[in-house]
Design a protein that fits this description.
41% helix; binds NADP nicotinamide-adenine-dinucleotide phosphate
Length: 87
């Protein structure tokens, strides 16, 4: 099973990508600030998922949390850094 990590998976494009990758049999790491939205998303996905809080504006802490997630998943095939805001 391939593995993908999506940073910014709680809404919008990141959430939609998570559902598409799950349909394509990916094991997923789902990260964002709104963990409760990641938990709701997790319930919609049948492949293995890992969820974690991250705020990418807190750089040292975010680096540590992302590294920890990659270790928990045993490596990655794909990483999508989607977090952002539009004005
Ligand atoms: N939609 C468009 O037409 C469009 C066009 C061009 C580019 N983009 C870019 O594509 C990306 C996604 O857009 P979207 O429309 O899907 O936006 P969205 O629905 O607002 O999703 C943004 C995602 O980024 C996460 N995020 C924001 N700030 C974060 C932070 N400090 N730390 C961690 N996660 C953070 C949000 O999660 P939390 O709030 O839970 O942390 C959410 O999961 C953005 O970078 C946007 O600028 C979008």
């Amino acid at each position: 099973m391939k593995k993908a990590l999506i940073i910014g998976a709680s809404s919008g494009i990141g959430r939609a990508l998570a559902l598409t990758l799950a349909k394509n049999e990916y094991e997923l790491g789902l990260m964002a600030r709104r963990v409760e939205m990641l938990e709701t998303l997790q319930e919609e996905i049948s492949t293995p998922t890992h969820i974690g809080h991250v705020d990418i504006s807190q750089i040292p802490d975010a680096n540590e949390k992302v590294q920890k997630m990659i270790q928990e998943m045993g490596g990655l095939d794909l990483m999508i850094i989607n977090s952002g805001v539009g004005f």
